[in-house]
Amino acid sequence: MNVELSSNGTAYIRYSMADSVDNVYVGGDDSSDVIVDIDAAGSVVGIELLNVSAEDDIASARAFAGDRGLPFPHDIAAAIHNLFVA
């Protein structure tokens, strides 16, 4: 697992370097701020959080990962607040 944080409040939790061929919105609603990238084999490439300050989005992403046996960062919201941009 690799966590890519952005100073604009987004995060990408990467599980694979495979190419993404599909996107799934967590909760099934295309207005969701949690988007999952899927590869050709149907495996999770990564989970994108569009707002790491939204606790419900973090909980949804964590549950999605947990339901699939994937690790998830312990405190991603704190990590984004400690990000320094050069």
Structure description:
It is a single chain. The chain has 86 residues and is α+β, with helices and mostly antiparallel strands. The chain has one domain (2-80). It is built from two helices and five strands; from the N terminus they run E-E-E-E-E-H-H. The protein has a five-stranded antiparallel β-sheet. The longest helix is centred in the C-terminal third of the chain and has 13 residues, at 55-67. It is globular and about 35 Å long. The mean pLDDT is 87.
Topology:
Blueprint: E1 2-5, E2 11-14, E3 22-25, E4 34-38, E5 44-49, H1 55-67, H2 76-81
Antiparallel strand pairs: 1-2, 2-5, 3-4, 4-5
- Biggest sheet: strands side by side, in what order? 1-2-5-4-3
Low-confidence segments, given as residue ranges, are none
Can you tell me the number of structural domains? Answer: 1
Helical stretch tally: 2
Portion in strands: 25-35%
- Which structural class fits the helix and strand makeup? alpha+beta
| Rg value | 12 Å
Total beta strand runs = 5
What is the terminal separation in angstroms? 24 Å
Element-level helix/strand string: EEEEEHH
